[in-house]
Design a protein that fits this description.
single chain; 559 residues; alpha/beta; five-stranded parallel sheet; 14 strands
């Protein structure tokens, strides 16, 4: 019996009790899905629910009496061994070994689909993450968003959402001008401007801009008038830098569906369109020669200038146009992932959302990620050899590899700062979380390989009642949790829950491995015990692979 089947059994018992008049309850109050959770103490059963405490008051009775009636009805359900009422009205449910063990076969048969759900079916999500300025290599903060953002996209998709991964390409504004001037200065053998960019990568890109121009038969950009030279280095330099960022992302396992150019908002008239729409809605006013958006109406701390008195668009004008563009492209929900220094961005963006008649927190969500600190040999790692001022994605991957980097960055809540110990992440020991989980997967493959050599084949038999050892009950319980974990990770936008779950599952598997054998020992005959345990072993392998896939981490067969 899967958790979903048990939830349906609980719901059916509630419906019958309402239909026969036992519970004076509006049928609409019965939840579509009765929530189940694993009891903290194994001896309390396989599953627990507080549904009686949720519904008793609406039914005009006390929670314990409600729970006792529900327990009486459940005890006759096939696959349920016992139902106990605890405390003020909790239901603790114990499954028969055969009912619990059936999950092993179900998981293997579902394969890569196991763990998926339809909670977000029909919802279209635009997920914008990373979006680093193309003025230098992607630094460690952006790398965290790459890992978390891509994992979140996978979790949302596993919950039925249609997700578009989007990168906002900041190719408009002062930072690009500083980048171009820095490239030109380096090409001319001069120091970077005071507000410019340094690092070896500037010299490399400047050299490439010159080489590309000469190879194409174009004039040496260093010999052009200053304005033309700056434009030449800007156009080609940004292209080269962004190409490098895209390649680094691809090598990290992250590819975007849309690369949206900020410049296009200004060139296409999208900014004027958005302002006109807000004017129609009555939220635009003129003052001091400038055009303003009255964001204080929607909780912002001050109104915002969107067109300055000199006629130039303020930065927020692009934000306004970009949000409206996403909504007009048909996305139900716009999710933006930003760095720790963007807290002040939230109020005005939520005001923009509300000004268009949308619901903040529903149509627009903003997730803020905190800092990442790297440690090696007990000391902070602060600078890249190439970038000069920051640690880049390539530095991290070179130090620990893609899998360890992605897993380590995705396994902690994004709203908390983290310290990554590069020495720990390089070790092939159980202290290294990604190794611990990947090793569990590799072990399941090895167990199956040894079983096959001993003549143990799944298709020759399965008897779920034979999975009656306490370690098997614990392992089955962990396997059963994946659908709930995925749905919760999607709902809360917290993919780190998948990583923490995998570590618990790996722990349960390692303990089971120490106590139960799949391949026969010595001259022992192959029996259904061995075959059924192989089903459980392979179910665990499938769940580990599915979970690692949600994090964009490989599931190795040998380690």
């Amino acid at each position: 019996m899967t958790p979903a089947q048990l939830s349906e059994a609980l719901k059916a018992a509630l419906v019958h009790a309402v239909d026969d008049g036992t519970f004076a309850l509006d049928p609409a109050a019965i939840p579509a899905t009765v929530h189940l959770e694993r009891p903290r103490q194994r001896e309390h059963g396989d599953w627990a629910t507080n549904v009686a405490m949720q519904l008793a008051k609406k039914a005009g009775t006390n929670p314990r009496a409600f729970a006792e009636e529900l327990a009486r009805r459940l005890t006759s359900t096939e696959g349920i061994a016992a139902v106990e009422v605890a405390g003020p009205g909790f239901l603790n449910i114990r499954l028969e070994a055969a009912a619990a063990g059936e999950l092993a076969r179900s998981v293997v048969e579902q394969g890569s689909d196991y763990g998926q759900n339809e909670t977000l079916s029909g919802v279209s999500v635009n997920l914008e993450f990373v979006s680093a300025n193309p003025t230098g290599p992607l630094h460690i903060g952006g790398v965290r968003w790459a890992a978390v953002g891509d994992s979140l996209a996978r979790v949302l998709q596993a919950s039925g959402a249609a997700v578009t991964r989007e990168y906002y390409f900041n190719d408009h504004g002062a930072q690009i001008d500083r980048f171009a001037r820095s490239l030109l200065a380096r090409a001319l053998g001069k120091d970077a401007p005071e507000d410019g960019y340094g690092g070896q990568y500037i010299a490399e890109i400047a050299e490439q801009v010159v080489a590309d121009a000469l190879a194409a038969g174009e004039p040496d950009p260093r010999t052009l008038p200053e304005a033309a030279a700056t434009e030449a280095f800007r156009a080609r330099g940004v292209e080269l830098m962004f190409g490098e960022i895209k390649q680094s992302m691809h090598d990290f396992g992250v590819d975007f569906d849309v690369y949206f150019h900020e410049d296009s908002l200004h060139e296409s008239g999208a900014v004027d369109h958005a302002i006109a729409r807000l004017r129609e809605l009555g939220h635009i006013f003129e003052a001091d020669g400038a055009t303003w958006l009255r964001t204080t109406t929607f909780g912002d701390d001050r109104d915002r200038v969107i067109i300055r008195s000199n006629g130039e668009a303020a930065y927020i004008a692009g934000d306004i146009a970009y949000y409206l563009d996403k909504r007009e492209r048909g996305f139900d929900r716009v999710v933006i992932m930003l760095g720790a220094d963007h807290h002040g961005y939230i109020g005005r963006m939520m005001a923009i959302c509300a000004a268009f008649g949308d619901t903040p927190g529903v149509n627009l969500e903003i997730l803020i990620g905190q800092l990442v600190n790297l440690v090696k040999d007990g000391a902070p790692v602060r600078m890249s050899k190439r970038a000069g001022t920051v640690v880049t994605i390539d530095d991290l991957v070179e130090a620990v590899g893609v899998d360890a980097a992605r897993y380590a960055l995705a396994r902690s809540s994004a709203d908390s700062s983290i310290d990554l110990d590069l020495d720990l992440l390089s070790r092939a020991t159980n202290e290294n979380p990604v190794f611990y989980v990947q090793y569990a997967h590799a072990r399941t493959v090895n167990v199956a390989r040894n079983a096959a050599e001993a003549g143990v084949r799944r298709e020759d038999g399965f008897d779920a009642s034979l999975l009656d050892h306490p370690s098997e009950a614990v392992l089955l319980g962990q396997i059963a949790e994946l659908p709930r974990v995925v749905a919760q990770a999607a709902e809360l936008r917290e993919p780190h829950r998948v990583a923490r779950y995998l570590e618990e599952l790996a722990g349960a598997y390692h303990k089971w491995y120490d106590q139960r054998r799949v391949a026969p020992f010595g001259d022992e005959e192959v029996s259904d015990v061995h075959r059924t345990r192989l089903w459980l072993n392979d179910a665990t392998r499938q769940v580990l692979a599915n979970g690692l896939g949600l994090l964009g981490v490989t599931a190795p067969e040998r380690m």
